[in-house]
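Below is our example:
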Amino acid sequence: MRKQGLILTGLLLLCLCGCSARTERAVTTIEQLNDKSYTIGVDEGSAGMFAVEQYLPEAEIRFFSNHVTGFAAVQQGELDAYAYDRIMIDFAIAGGVDGVRLLDGRLGEPMDIAVGVSPKTTIPDLTRKINEFLAELRTDGTLDEMYNRWVRSADSTMPDIPTAENPKYHLRVGTTGVVQPFSYYEGTALTGYDIELINRFAHWLNADVEISVYDYGGIIAAAESGDIDCIMANLNATPERREKLGFSDGYLLSETVIMVRSGPEENGQRYQTVEELEVPGTRLGILTGSVFDALTQEAFPEGALLYYNNIPDMAYSVTNGQLDAFMVDEPVARYMELEYPAVTHIPQLMSETDYAFAFPKSPEGGRLRDEMNEFLTGLRADGTLAELDSLWFGPEEEKKVIDLSGLTGENGTLHLATNTENPPFSYLANGQIVGYEIDIAARFCAAYGYDLEIHNMDFAAIIPGLGERYNIAASCIAVTEERAESVYFSDPDYSGGTVMMVKGIEPEKGFFTSLAESFEKTFVRESRWKLIVEGVKTTVLISLSATILGSVLGFGLCMMKLSGSSLAKGFAQTYIRILQGTPMVVLLMILFYLVFSGSGLGGVWVAVIGFGLNLAAYVCEMIRTGIQSVDRGQTEAALALGFTPSRAFFQIVMPQAARQFLPVFKGEFISLIKMTSVVGYIAVEDLTKMSDIIRSRTYEAFFPLISTAVMYFIIAWALTSLLRPIERRVTPDRRNRTVKGVKLP
């Protein structure tokens, strides 16, 4: 443990030190970079490398094998600049690389990108033919159209280009297949600017075409030897290459330019209006189980939809450039901006929405709905609802408390389903679930003589849970016709709408300042470290209890499979096939919402049963394989020595079988620990769920995720160490052996 802990700590410190090594400086001119205090990234062996060495000799050069990694280093502030081809940087920015810009000017003189022609080609006058072809495309604007489509718009649509019906030539072309947008694979098909150019030229030449893929080190040699007729691969016509090959006229101009990070005044909000998002392929986030799915598809029919389980993950994705925008309720958007200024909303309502309490569609649910409507009417009439609006949507956190002292429970208990990742409607503060709708629910219960139990779960599980298990739900639930078919809605408790969240302008902070703020918000504020501790307890309880249950059930199933009863064998085999073929999340929801819905059994114990049942199917097969690996002669010998069958099994067979299946069992145990991260679907606040709750308040990713990963590592190590004494006992070469007080090696 000590060695593993030191390694983990070292990696974390290395990460922190690496992230903190650079101080932000504004770079405004290329000449400014000619100083040893600046670090410039280049692709090894590229034109950018030679240009930096020639024109910025004082700068420190860092070499990259991949320009994508270099661009990311500039975005993250690890590099001061990156020298690369203007065309490729234009394409990267069009494709979503933000937070960067180009300095004015270029390094050195521009260079032609041209077709390299083999000196051994069998096609007569190939260079002249290529030049005539390029001249026609230049005159009719095709080259400009191709550049704008492939590079400036990052549009990967390949036009339909006819093939030669009666080809006169066989054209062999070499390309690379690794340089987007010029020549790359989309699935298994080659595509890109140069591939389009190849197909257009083959049609023009009346030739069938054979395209071969090489790396840059081999493509020149292939042309020299005559294996290919020409090269179309974003190839710079350098003086050295011209000594070996013929070259066509240039069809593009290669310039080495400098990419730097945008300053806060330059890196402004990317989208200002909803209309800017109405572009095919815009990446839009959807909260699973929300009404935003249909609304987003209706508003952006050509958008690319990506589904997320919580709002903080969508916010991070927008900040990191993985998403362009996501839809969220306007009041949640306003709260989010206070905590996480890296995102902002476009001030244009996408829809007008009412938010209300939901009840089961049953006589009891209808009665509760009527009582809630009566209560809301009173709150609205005496001004209390307006006061609650000002309180919970305002900045005074110290006043945001829930008064539960008036709950008598004389008329029973209401079980409220919510999701604490929707502040200010419902969230966790100081270990208590609070929020605008939670406050209303508590006041309602006090007025009508109910007690109140609040259950936190994933948003997607709230509506399905209404019925036997929960009789009221509140979590910024939008009223829709589709939902109204399966639940009763109260009168609206809040009327608002939905907006689009996009990347905002985040204030520049030093690394250590940001790190300290993140640590304080994650662990210190509101004593949120206690949430992690509670989550660890729940995860350990479920893991250990499920393992014990699964092991006992698995042993019983194994005995059934090894018995002489065909009925027992059939039952065990059917059980194993069903459990191994059922996803864990589905099994948990079946048990929680169907099998045990009216039993009052808590989510933790349903999780124990679910994981125990699942583990039993695998334990059965492990034990059976271990038992069958022990020679039957050992049992026969034990019986001949006077052992009873049960004694022979448990003292002779099982210890040897355990030696075989314990390593596999340990691996399955670790998998079970990690799988418990899905129990949030059934209202269990385990370690992962607690991390999500913290992130929903802080919108911080680093410490919640790192601490969760570290805690899972520690839990897995600690719990699997409990198996070591058993391993030592059943493995002779790991036991301490003594003969007459002498310890044997």
About this structure: The first helix runs from residue 2 to 20. Residues 274-352 form a domain with the D-Maltodextrin-Binding Protein; domain 2 fold (CATH 3.40.190.10). Residues 1-23 have pLDDT under 50 and may be disordered.
